[in-house]
Prior knowledge:
The complex is a heterodimer of chains A (about 180) and B (about 110). Chain A has a single domain (about 5-170), classed as Metal-dependent hydrolases (TIM Barrel). Chain A has about 180 residues and is of the alpha/beta class. Chain A is globular, with a radius of gyration of 15 Å. In chain A, strand 4, helix 2 and strand 5 (about 70) form a beta-alpha-beta unit. In chain A, about 35% of the residues lie in helices and about 15% in strands. Chain A contains eight helices and seven strands, in the order E-H-E-E-E-H-E-H-E-H-H-E-H-H-H. Chain B is of the alpha+beta class and about 110 residues long. Chain B has one domain: Ribonuclease P, Pop5 subunit (Alpha-Beta Plaits, 2-Layer Sandwich). Chain B contains four helices and six strands. Chain B has helices at about 25-40, 45-50, 70-80, 100-110; strands at about 5-15, 50-60, 60-65, 85, 85-90, 90-95. In chain B, strand 4 (about 85) and strand 5 form a beta hairpin. The mean pLDDT of chain B is about 90. At the A-B interface, helix 6 of A face helix 3 and strand 6 of B.
Amino acid sequence: MDFYDLVGPGFKPDGDLAARLGYKSVFTAGNELLVIDAGKESGGHLPYVANGNNQGRLAYHAKNGAQGVMPDGFAADASLIETMRDGECIMVIAISQITQAGAESRPKMLYMAAKLFSACRKAGINVAFVSMARSRAYLESYIQMIELAKLIGADEQYARYSISRVNGTLGGMHD
Amino acid sequence: MIREKHRYLLVEASEPIDIGIDRAARQKFERELYAALRAELGEAHYFSVNPRLVLNTGNNSFLMKCSLKGFQSLVLAFALMKQFDGREMGFYTLKSSGTIRALKDSLKMA
């Protein structure tokens, strides 16, 4: 199984770092895959992920062509989950929201991520784990991503599957 | 006596680190690393994981040894550790193995 990661805009791991971390490829938001502000922008023709905290706008994008939804703070209400249940749109969990959180807010972020993951799986929505790292310090190797996914509630098999999703379901324009 | 099973990890720092060639420098690095891991794992859990620096492999990477049952915790501790030596820094778990020889062999092949 090949693993892929998505990092924040303006950042690209240099040299062979992506290969050392165990990824076949690391995509940059804004280059290979658009990540748009769900509250302000509308999606274009390229594959895109809607990001934000406005639940109505996230649901709108989920219904109207977004490949993925990445809610800020892992907050997703019942109507968003219900909307996504009917479509192909997947839930994107950005690990950097956990690793960038301070020591005090990290347990809450982990709890929110676990709750979101559980709600999505119960509704049959696929989940992708990505780092969304904005610098080298916030990158994770595929081994670490698997363990973080397991910490959030995935089993080993689903954790591996969800780290290969960036290429498959999100974007899907490589290989 | 039951022999405890171990797991070995190849870890790389995202920024340049001074693991030290001489004993004093290495001990200083070890102290800082263990303190950072203790902060992530918690005092009680740290001793069940029992992380130990085994080898400086160069290029900002090193080999760690831990108890088999503490493997996941140590991987997570390195994943969540984003500050070290007063700097913003991440640690990548690149490979893991049940024997140190397998990791050394993979380093030779790289």
